Amino acid sequence: MSLLEARNLTRLFGGLAAVNHVDLSVDEGEIVGLIGPNGAGKTTCFNLLSGFLRPTLGSIVLAGEDITGLRPHQIASRGLIRTFQLTTLFQEMTALENVLLGLHLHSDKGPRRVLFGRRAFPADEIARGREVLEFTGLVSHADQLTRNLPHGHQRVLGIAMALAARPRLLMLDEPVTGMNLDESGRVMELVKTIRGRGTTILLVEHNMRAVMGTCERIVVLNFGQKLAEGTPAEVSTSPDVIQAYLGTGVNHA
Amino acid sequence: MHRRLGVLLGLVVLAVLALLLPQFGGDYYVHIFALVFTNVILAASLRPSLTCGQLNIGHSAFMSIGAYTSALLAKNLAVPFEISLLGGALLATAVGWAIGYPSLRLRGVYFAMVTVAFVEVIRLIAQLWVPLTRGMSGLSGIPKPSVLGMTLSTRTGQYYLALVLMLATLLVLWKLEHSRLGLIWRSIGMADHLAQSLGVNIARHKLLAFMLGCFFAGIAGGFYAHFIRFLFPPEFGFLMATNILVYNYVGGRGHFVGPIVGAVFLSLLSEPFRGSPYETIFFSIAMLLTILFLPGGLITLPRKLAELRWWRTASAPTPSPAA
Fold first, then answer.
1. Cross-chain residue pair A120–B182, CB shorter than 8 Å
2. What stretch(es) of chain A map to CATH 3.40.50.300?
């Protein structure tokens, strides 16, 4: 059964169709990759699905519920959690505080807690936060300010926050950009482990190698349209895809 | 543990000083400090909204609403002080809701412009609604504050009232800032997109923080009205609103005590210029100096000095081990 079902998704920016009649579905338990050359509409697609942009046309259904046009926090509360490209984090907070914010949807915000609680955060929320940091290998940096963490750790922290929100569908926007081979390998292992725990994953990535080794199904976008869809092997041998990525050889002309 | 003890000791000393002030200070100091406490309430109540990244340059408007409402309720309808004070604060909160609901989705300078316009609107209403507010003649004959039917007729009694109101305000605001709400406010100020993606309803939390500020500004206004017992519309204008903002920046944005330190320091230091044109110049210079030399505000001064001292000793020529 498909967890996410986007039909005829379209977004116009003036006269430009950044995303043009795209159908996209993600089944429960899958890892799906969304790839394409620069400007193909991957991030726009992401923003549409997570509610940061409204689609001009089309509908999005999450677990049987129509979420088209809902606001980002409403979509998040229905279990679709996304990360951002690069290091969009709460830089002036500690790593643990970042993850505690990730727990927002599952935290006690009642007036009694807020006004009369003896501690800022109940012990079980702290424990859950540390557990997520443990899982992502950041627990030794829990009390460090985020902006002092190395780039690789910051990217992982972004994923940790999203995990704390307990997503049904986790959408990762270029999680390994700017990482070396070793680091990106570790992040991809982490992604597989997360899937192993029952979270469905949709991944936008520029780095072909990372996607090919991780995803079961790949959707290729080009100029806002779906160019190809299939297993990594099918996609990587598709002449359309090779042409989109590498261009047409001079000889063909 | 050492630090906690130091903080506790400092608080005790401050509390004793505040309690004893009427004993060894004259009526003049009692009067000044009651006004300082009002400024502390105003400065601290702006902090939640500022933490959310909302630049509110119209906070004095809500003080004005609280002041006029409480004064008119007490004067015209003989409502007891406690209730008129609360009534003023609640009306300020309600107006805060009406202003904040549509405008809080604006960011940065656009929201700031709305608040600037609003403070002028409130000033003009107070100025032009003569039958109710007496306009530019000023509203006088406001009864003195009373608690449980007992009129606080002495300056000392009113001073203690201001102290209690300030402490209660600070306690509530401190508690909220050090709860999950404080974390949410900071998250909205730092990266509102990310907060949204984690399920934070940023519109609601910005509005809540804003209304919280309006409530306590209303309390400050209510006390002010019954303490000074004369209200004059231009007093609550743009100038006072910027001063409240300056308290926050000069004191420091990074910690809860920032606006408190800023309000106390600047209100005392600017006292000789109060009401004169030099007041504006004084506040401008204070703001400028802070931005240039202490961008983190006065609260970062001890750390800066310690760093300086460390740097001096570290860079001093060390005697060579051979000598």
1. yes
2. 1-79+168-253
